[in-house]
Every structure is written in structure tokens, then in C-alpha cells.
Specification:
It is a single chain. This protein has 21 helices and nine strands. The N and C termini lie far apart (62 Å). The N terminus is likely disordered. It is α+β, with helices and mostly antiparallel strands. The chain has three domains: 279 residues, no CATH class; 88 residues, no CATH class; 65 residues, Muramoyl-pentapeptide Carboxypeptidase, domain 1 (Orthogonal Bundle), CATH 1.10.101. Strand 8 and strand 9 form a beta hairpin. This is Lytic murein transglycosylase.
Length: 466
């Protein structure tokens, strides 16, 4: 493996890192696209919005704290002020934890000296993203003609790297490239927050301290080992960094030295970033030679209650129920199993998702994200757009409306958990059952029609059998 990696580095020295200038050339060649939706930090499950940038600054001054609206005790003004005052002691305690995990004493002193909290992060931490775009808008915006063209150019420029990643990990090279394209627009949109400062802030202040302590220690391990220079370790406010956005603990678990130079540098080396992404997807369950899923068409009178992630059937069984791949294409393997996903409800495209879609969800657990990755990968390889159009007049519920819907469903006797605006499995099950009682298509989509029906006569629906 070592000899193969060294050979790859020599053959692609003009392609794999700033040592040969490829990252700089790629950044200059690719224009920055606006980030269209808030995405999850792919390897850590923390929401963040990447910033527009094609370069990495050497320093970032802490911004002043902004007003934070939260009911969480740790996010109240007095608690935030106390945590800010206690920040040096907290960092010192975490430094001891880092020493116990192998970080050198000199490393702890060097990388924690002078650290101050960036209190502006608290406003970002406690901001519930208000999604005002549908899944169709999200996917269409990300899988644009420009992004497809630039992705093909990036794959051509790094052809040897992508071939080697696919050969080594058995992960579709187009999927790996798609993650690069959607996470950082092929390296041009990475974020500007110093990862050490961001993770230290979150580890010592606010309501996510327990989670971020390990992230901060992992970040110290990265710079102390010398994998990535501290001045290059910049990323999102939540600590994700690199060409394909790794959280520090995910980096420690999945990053590989794919170019064979002795460092796992997912920031500056295309080879390391793509190899690490392939390794992460393989650990997430990716199976070589299989698709992530198939666009399908449903027959008249289809039972939409079957559109549930818990209902997994072989492709042959889906076919026996009248489910057909679009454009007359056959299912590749009748024994392969999958579940039916209707991301825009009964009016939009339908998909049968395989186990490889779950592998994409291991990178980011949002259906829209994984769908965008899969679709961009298919377009990069020369595939067609989706056959069924996305509904043009569909509007997603605002967060307040989602909470209201959950509250109304709960008042009818449905178990939806705490009304928080997150449309989880319990809420979708409740929506599907409510749609049946209301005479709507039971596709499980919490849309305006469902909310309006819930507002009209909730007592009547309770009397109908709840």
C-alpha cells in the first residue's frame, strides 16, 4: 500500500496538493457558487453554512457576541457570560484530556496559548435553520449545469486519483467527486473559521459542550501530529474542514494518507481528501457495483402507505406491484432490496433507494443532501436529469407551521414527540394516518394541505376513530 501510494504521488504530483500547485490552479479556475441552502457538516452531523472563500486567512478576530434567543439554561446571558469567563480554565482542562490522548505537552502549550472564545458562534449554534426551499429546489440548485461541467473538469484534472480511490475502496468515483462538488464546490468554498478556536468555543460555551469536547481534542491531535498545519485548519463555525468537510473526530477515524507523503491532509491534498472520502463511504456501507437508487414511476391506484423507509422489498417485488424504472430501464438486480422514497410527495419524482443511499446518509443524514449527491454523481457520468418534474407550486411549511402541525396532531392523540418542527418518523407516520382519515393521498408529506385540513375540524377527526 505504501509503495502504491508513493507511486501515485509521483505520477500525479501535479494533481494532488499545493506542493505542485493544483489546489491553487483549481481554485482560480472554478468560480464560487453561492451556497443555496444550509447543509449539515457532513462528518459530524452539525448544521453549518459554508462561507464563500477561495483562500484561507491566517487569522480570524473573534466577533462580538450577538443576541441569542434560547430557552436552554446554558444559552442564557448569565450562563454564557460565566462560561466565557471560565474559558481559560476549560481549555486547560481539555488540554489535560488531550495529553492523556497522546498530544505532546509542547503541542498543548503551543496550540492553546492565547485561545479566546468566538462568542458570535453562539448565535449560529442556537439558530434553527428556516428552510424555505423544497427538496426539488435544493437538488436542482445544487445539481446545476455549471457544477456538472466543473466537476467533470476536476475529475479529468485528477483522473489518476479518482481511479485509484475507486480501485482501493470500491466506491463509485463519481460519488466521491459529487461530495467534493456539493461540500465545497470543488475546493472553492471551505469556510474561514479557525477550527481550534471554533471547537474550543463550542466545547466550553453553550449547549453542545459535551459533544464538542472530543472535537476540540481531536483537532489538537491533528495539528500536533502535523497532518495539517494549524494555519491551514480553517472551516465552518461548527468545526468541519477540508475539501470534503470532515469533523475532527471523523478525520481521526476515516482520514487516510492517500498520496503517501506521511500526512493525512484533507485540506491541501486532493488525493488525501478523495481517498478519505472513499474510506468513509466504505465504512458507511457502500457496496461496489451498485447504484444508490433508481427513479421509478408508480402505477395508478398505488398504495402510498408503502412509501416508508421501514418497508424494504426486493426490486422484483416492487416490480410485481407495478413499480417501474423510468424510461423503460430494467432494475439491475431483481434480488437487490430497497425502500420507496417520495421526497416531494405523490406529485413529485419517486425513487427506490438501495443500501448505498444509506451509505450516503452516513455522510450527512438528510435525504435531500444524499439525493443531490447521488444525482450529481449520475450527471457527472453522463446520466440524464430526472424524468418526473418537481412540483412547481409546492411550498414547504415554515418552522412555525411545522410546530403547529405537530401540536395539532398531538392534540388528536398522535404520538409525535416534542413539537420542535423536525419532521421525524413519528410525525410522518402521524401525517400519513391523518391523510387517510382526511381523504388525502397518504404520501406522508407534511404540506400546506395537511395543515389546512388539521385546522378545519380536528374534533371531527378525533371522533372518526382516534
Amino acid at each position: 500500500m505504501r509503495n502504491r501510494a508513493i507511486g501515485l504521488r509521483r505520477r500525479t504530483s501535479a494533481l494532488t496538493g499545493p506542493r505542485a500547485g493544483v489546489a491553487a490552479r483549481t481554485a482560480r479556475a472554478l468560480l464560487v457558487l453561492p451556497v443555496l441552502l444550509t447543509l449539515g457538516a457532513c462528518s459530524g452531523g452539525v448544521d453549518f453554512a459554508p462561507e464563500r472563500t477561495a483562500s484561507i486567512p491566517v487569522a480570524r478576530k473573534p466577533a462580538p457576541a450577538r443576541a441569542v434567543r434560547s430557552s436552554h439554561p446554558a444559552m442564557q446571558p448569565q450562563a454564557l457570560a460565566a462560561a466565557e469567563a471560565n474559558f481559560p480554565r476549560c481549555v486547560a482542562e481539555l488540554g489535560e484530556k488531550a495529553r492523556a490522548r497522546g498530544v505532546s505537552a509542547q503541542g498543548v502549550r503551543t496550540y492553546t496559548a492565547g485561545l479566546t472564545p468566538d462568542m458570535s458562534i453562539m448565535a449560529k449554534l442556537d439558530t434553527q435553520p428556516e428552510f424555505t426551499r423544497t427538496t426539488g429546489d435544493y437538488v436542482t440548485s445544487l445539481v446545476s449545469d455549471t457544477r456538472i461541467q466543473r466537476g467533470r473538469e476536476a475529475m479529468t484534472a485528477n483522473a489518476a486519483v479518482f481511479e485509484a480511490v475507486e480501485r482501493t475502496y470500491g466506491v463509485d468515483k463519481y460519488v466521491v467527486a459529487a461530495i467534493w462538488g456539493i461540500e465545497t464546490n470543488y475546493g472553492t468554498v471551505r469556510g474561514t473559521y479557525p477550527v481550534l478556536q471554533a471547537t474550543a468555543t463550542l466545547a466550553c460555551v453553550g449547549r453542545r459542550q459535551a459533544y464538542f469536547r472530543d472535537e476540540f481534542v481531536a483537532a489538537l491531535q491533528i495539528v500536533d501530529r502535523g497532518d495539517i498545519p494549524e494555519s491551514h485548519l480553517r472551516g465552518s463555525w461548527a468545526g468541519a474542514f477540508g475539501l470534503t468537510q470532515f469533523m475532527p473526530t471523523a478525520f481521526q477515524r476515516d482520514a487516510v494518507d492517500f498520496d503517501g507523503d506521511g500526512h493525512r491532509n484533507v485540506v491541501d491534498s486532493v488525493a488525501d481528501a478523495m481517498g478519505s472520502t472513499g474510506a468513509k463511504l466504505r465504512r458507511g456501507g457502500w457496496v461496489a457495483g451498485r447504484s444508490w437508487g433508481y427513479e421509478v414511476q408508480l402505477p395508478r391506484g398505488f398504495d402510498y402507505r408503502l412509501a416508508d423507509k421501514s418497508i424494504v422489498k426486493p426490486m422484483a417485488e416492487w416490480a410485481s406491484l407495478g413499480v417501474r424504472r423510468v424510461a423503460g430501464r430494467p432494475f439491475a438486480n431483481g434480488a437487490e432490496a430497497g425502500y420507496l422514497l417520495l421526497p416531494a410527495g405523490a406529485e413529485g419524482p419517486a425513487f427506490v433507494m438501495t443500501g448505498n443511499f444509506k451509505a450516503l446518509l452516513s455522510y450527512n443524514p438528510a435525504d435531500a443532501y444524499a439525493l443531490a449527491i447521488g444525482h450529481l454523481a449520475d450527471r457527472l457520468r453522463g446520466g440524464d436529469p430526472f424524468v418526473t418534474p418537481w412540483p412547481a407550486d409546492q411550498r414547504p411549511l415554515a418552522r412555525g407551521e411545522r410546530i403547529e402541525l405537530q401540536q395539532r396532531l398531538a392534540s388528536m392523540g398522535y404520538e409525535v414527540g416534542t413539537p420542535d418542527g423536525v419532521m421525524g418518523a413519528k410525525t410522518r407516520d402521524a401525517v400519513r394516518d391523518f391523510q387517510i382519515r382526511a381523504g388525502l393521498v397518504p404520501d406522508g408529506l407534511p404540506d400546506v394541505a395537511v395543515l389546512e385540513h388539521a385546522r378545519r375540524n380536528p374534533a371531527g377527526y378525533r371522533q372518526a376513530g382516534l
